[in-house]
Amino acid sequence: MLTYKAPLRDIKFLINDVFNFQKHYKDLDNGENADPETVDMILQSIADFAENVLMPIYQSGDAEGCHFDNGVVTTPKGFKEAYQQFVEGGWQGISYPEQYGGMNLPMSLNLIKSEIIGTANWPWSMYPGLSTGCINTLMQYGNDEQKETYLHKLVAGSWAGTMCLTEPQCGTDLGQVKSKAIPQEDGSYKLSGTKIFISSGEHDLTENIIHIVLARLPDAPEGTRGISLFIVPKFLPNAESEIGERNGVSCGSIEHKMGISSSATCVLNFDEAVGHLIGEPNKGLKAMFTFMNTARIGTGIEGLAHTELSFQNALPYAKDRRSMRTLSGVKDPEKVADAIINHADVRRMLLTQKAFAEGGRSMIYHAARYADKMSQAVVNGDEAEFEKWDDKLGFYTPIIKGFLTELGIESAKHGQQIYGGHGYIKEWGMELIARDARIATMYEGTTGIQALDLLGRKVLLQSKGKIIRDYTSNIMRWCGEYALDKDMRKFVWALTKLCAEWNTLTVRLMLIARKDREIISAASDDFLMYSGYVMMGYHWARMAAVAHEKIKNGGTESEEFYTAKIQTAEFYFDKILTRTSGHAESMVAPSESMTAMKIESFAFLD
Amino acid sequence: MLTYKAPLRDIKFLINDVFNFQKHYKDLDNGENADPETVDMILQSIADFAENVLMPIYQSGDAEGCHFDNGVVTTPKGFKEAYQQFVEGGWQGISYPEQYGGMNLPMSLNLIKSEIIGTANWPWSMYPGLSTGCINTLMQYGNDEQKETYLHKLVAGSWAGTMCLTEPQCGTDLGQVKSKAIPQEDGSYKLSGTKIFISSGEHDLTENIIHIVLARLPDAPEGTRGISLFIVPKFLPNAESEIGERNGVSCGSIEHKMGISSSATCVLNFDEAVGHLIGEPNKGLKAMFTFMNTARIGTGIEGLAHTELSFQNALPYAKDRRSMRTLSGVKDPEKVADAIINHADVRRMLLTQKAFAEGGRSMIYHAARYADKMSQAVVNGDEAEFEKWDDKLGFYTPIIKGFLTELGIESAKHGQQIYGGHGYIKEWGMELIARDARIATMYEGTTGIQALDLLGRKVLLQSKGKIIRDYTSNIMRWCGEYALDKDMRKFVWALTKLCAEWNTLTVRLMLIARKDREIISAASDDFLMYSGYVMMGYHWARMAAVAHEKIKNGGTESEEFYTAKIQTAEFYFDKILTRTSGHAESMVAPSESMTAMKIESFAFLD
């Protein structure tokens, strides 16, 4: 019963009116490929595919789930056919070089593609999504032979890829990885070990699956400094990149999960599987880290996707369902009761979803421009340029991943709530969105890990607060431009106050942390959420400014569209941004209130 | 893999140290039955039953679900046997009069029983839970013949009961009920219509099921003033209360739900089913309302149950799972990494669960004393006395139901999050708790309905703010007693400030509402959550005071237990109570930020 329409009007508002992607594309090597007509065509085509091919198999795919039989994984009905269409459309390769068969469009378009297909069917989108991780790793760290052997098929989508990091004893703490890689005389390696939670680890969509695997060389140092990266194909390719012998990697089982059940989450057993080293020995973790920023933006998109889908499906129900009369007076006198969209509390939930979807999209599209630069640097083999943009993106990554996925869970909850008891019934689909959204704060680094990355690593350790000073000074400069604009006053003053507070809090935490290292962990979640709300506030203020300008300039046929942007911004500042207060107070609370309790005092059950 | 131990130490801390139930029982007609030894024995027996019989069939019951075949519903393996043991223990009747075969213990013990069995297996507990609703309705509104015919079997548990309110077109807005009751010459009625979402509507646990049904008489006024209450048994009983002919009520299907899948949620079709009027014609809604306070406390218990269960199962994992080193220094040097319970951010989640569980339990046990008084009034047929205590309970009901079920969802989320990716895997069970917890904010009146009941009905309409003035004056008096106690200073000052703010906010809302009725709906959710956090803060302060006193008096063997109470209170005040700030700011925001947007401007998708 779920439906989806790609919100192209909102997407174009951002890429044209707010961020002027055409101007940004002029500075990219491959920017001229992305002329306005091409962009429009790409967006429309991917929207058609998502709406008509992926959406109809979203709920049925969940109900059926993946099948596992003696190492073979079969995806739900329709998944293979949809994937075939995806390959035929060339969609896997839109942002990869023509040299490998790609369309050589900017990476930002690939992210927008991910958003659209992910909103229509997140678990399906994970199959090409994991391939992207594999392709990006090979693009950046593979040697010429590896690129030549694998990238053509991966970029075409006829082969798929995975990222094999997690093991039973460790996820985040990759220093505990035990999988072994034994060097062979021919320069290859034999890999043995067990990997778990491998998304798309085995399936029937492609003739081959290329695993990127973290493992240890025999003489590797302990911990994270002894991890290397390997490429391990399911079928060993010959010189013509045609599949040959089956490799020693097999799927031991698939997980039974709360959601994303049509995405195969595999236990992979490597038993003397033939692999090849990617990049330098023992530098695998560094490679993973440079790859992580974009992978985490990809997961941040999941937060947006589930917010948007839940909103789109809560809205028609709120217009149709009738219950009670509106407090300010009867709205639909000819009907037995008013549509529930008239009740302010229902509007609160809908507007929260709307504000999170459109605000989150703005945050992601802003960051997507850094991804364009990084992708260009990878193609050009310009490491310094890559690091420069990766560094810039590094501030946004934990916020987009950590904050937006938390909002995805909240939004999906609102969507269910608007349906009342029907929100709990499978047929309606709102509960599926909630179940699927739930994974996003756990994989690709939990919210706690994002929070520690933001506050501990990026704000305090790496920049001693400068990153916040720089970001807030941008906001303040922008506020300065609008300080005398009475339409914008409300936003400008609220943001200015928050910029001052954000800096003060950062300094306070820095000072406390000198004596009390635990404050960094104790405050991290509040700091992450606080940062997210302020950043989204800035994005809403910018969208409101653009909308006001459009209306003032007149001649627009879309005045209602722009008015809705301004109203949503006002809602966000009145009802959502207020959440910063609690986080601000809580983050500077003494860490002792968390650390004091003895481990054995948490419960007295015997 | 889930486990449960009834937290008897925490339960006894409340009923003995904090609330002195023995003193309270002295004022009850049936209080002398509840001497300390009996209470201990009851608690221990119900704990044994919950831990050893109900817990082991919780996860398996979810995996199997209920079966539906041509109108017959079969519960999962083990459910019937467990129910038989429940009946043999006499547990259904512990708080009902001996006249009907009950144990005649105070109703508060029945609520604690509900908590313990509900924590072990919430969906199972819904079968006896719905019977309770049916019994309470008959106790209060049934005539002597109806009581004699039905109560013996219902109190014994050999028959079960339901409450049939919701129809496809309406849940909350019962004025839209369409089911018809046609009077017959013999004084009975024939009921026709469709009821949906009927928990325990059909199952194999008992030989008969007694439905309490809302329907309209032919000449009934429109809307809520035309609803009457009927008793409609599945099998018509003869004069000896033995089952006879099958009645015209049948189960059309059961719902496929996000969770509580072992609890049958039925579509019931009434086709000229024989029923009898309960109470007066057209007064059915009033009867439902007086019954609702206790039913909603029962749902509030679900919030506590899922919080406790998630906490109990997150705790051992946090002690076992090892990842990274603690920021303040290595904790387990001999191990590959520190247990994650050492990380402050993990402690934040565990302590949030602990604070919500123990704080929520305190709120419910406080309210349980009103339930004792109401139950006594029903037995004595003293309507005025009933109304007096029902009125008092009425302030707590929407907070306990609305606020604690929201916390149940949050807590279950933390429990999953502590497990990382494993929190998403069915085997571990943490995701089941999250799925089951999700229903609690939707049924028995959504959170939005509780919020409107609190702010609109009870605070503004019925009492013009007096209810808040009264409640806060109690807190302030209590604070006055501790104002000079340096151990308590932190709690006392924070609460005093909040009491002032709570009153100010109430007055501000009252003034705004004179011109702008929509503010009541717009502010209601914030007001509910704000009220909940402050109320729970008061409970934590009281528990801290008792704990301090116990430690000061010395001679206790449980100093660590009491210290943990104080530490949890400090955590609550430092990290949770700060959430009130955002709600306070948001609730007085202009309702226009919610009402201004035109319905057609919420989305521009075409």
From TrEMBL, chains A, B:
<feature type="domain" description="Acyl-CoA dehydrogenase/oxidase N-terminal">
    <location>
        <begin position="37"/>
        <end position="157"/>
    </location>
</feature>
<dbReference type="InterPro" id="IPR036250">
    <property type="entry name" value="AcylCo_DH-like_C"/>
</dbReference>
<feature type="domain" description="Acetyl-CoA dehydrogenase-like C-terminal">
    <location>
        <begin position="485"/>
        <end position="597"/>
    </location>
</feature>
<dbReference type="InterPro" id="IPR037069">
    <property type="entry name" value="AcylCoA_DH/ox_N_sf"/>
</dbReference>
<keyword id="KW-0560">Oxidoreductase</keyword>
<dbReference type="Pfam" id="PF00441">
    <property type="entry name" value="Acyl-CoA_dh_1"/>
</dbReference>
<comment type="similarity">
    <text>Belongs to the acyl-CoA dehydrogenase family.</text>
</comment>
<dbReference type="Pfam" id="PF02771">
    <property type="entry name" value="Acyl-CoA_dh_N"/>
</dbReference>
<dbReference type="InterPro" id="IPR025878">
    <property type="entry name" value="Acyl-CoA_dh-like_C_dom"/>
</dbReference>
<dbReference type="InterPro" id="IPR046373">
    <property type="entry name" value="Acyl-CoA_Oxase/DH_mid-dom_sf"/>
</dbReference>
<protein>
    <recommendedName>
        <fullName>3-methylmercaptopropionyl-CoA dehydrogenase</fullName>
        <ecNumber>1.3.99.41</ecNumber>
    </recommendedName>
</protein>
<dbReference type="InterPro" id="IPR006091">
    <property type="entry name" value="Acyl-CoA_Oxase/DH_mid-dom"/>
</dbReference>
<keyword id="KW-0274">FAD</keyword>
<dbReference type="InterPro" id="IPR013786">
    <property type="entry name" value="AcylCoA_DH/ox_N"/>
</dbReference>
<feature type="domain" description="Acyl-CoA dehydrogenase/oxidase C-terminal">
    <location>
        <begin position="282"/>
        <end position="453"/>
    </location>
</feature>
<dbReference type="InterPro" id="IPR009100">
    <property type="entry name" value="AcylCoA_DH/oxidase_NM_dom_sf"/>
</dbReference>
<comment type="function">
    <text>Involved in the assimilation of dimethylsulphoniopropionate (DMSP), an important compound in the fixation of carbon in marine phytoplankton, by mediating the conversion of 3-(methylthio)propanoyl-CoA (MMPA-CoA) to 3-(methylthio)acryloyl-CoA (MTA-CoA).</text>
</comment>
<feature type="domain" description="Acyl-CoA oxidase/dehydrogenase middle">
    <location>
        <begin position="163"/>
        <end position="272"/>
    </location>
</feature>
<dbReference type="GO" id="GO:0050660">
    <property type="term" value="F:flavin adenine dinucleotide binding"/>
</dbReference>
<dbReference type="InterPro" id="IPR052166">
    <property type="entry name" value="Diverse_Acyl-CoA_DH"/>
</dbReference>
<keyword id="KW-0285">Flavoprotein</keyword>
<dbReference type="Pfam" id="PF02770">
    <property type="entry name" value="Acyl-CoA_dh_M"/>
</dbReference>
<dbReference type="InterPro" id="IPR009075">
    <property type="entry name" value="AcylCo_DH/oxidase_C"/>
</dbReference>
<dbReference type="GO" id="GO:0016627">
    <property type="term" value="F:oxidoreductase activity, acting on the CH-CH group of donors"/>
</dbReference>
<dbReference type="Pfam" id="PF12806">
    <property type="entry name" value="Acyl-CoA_dh_C"/>
</dbReference>
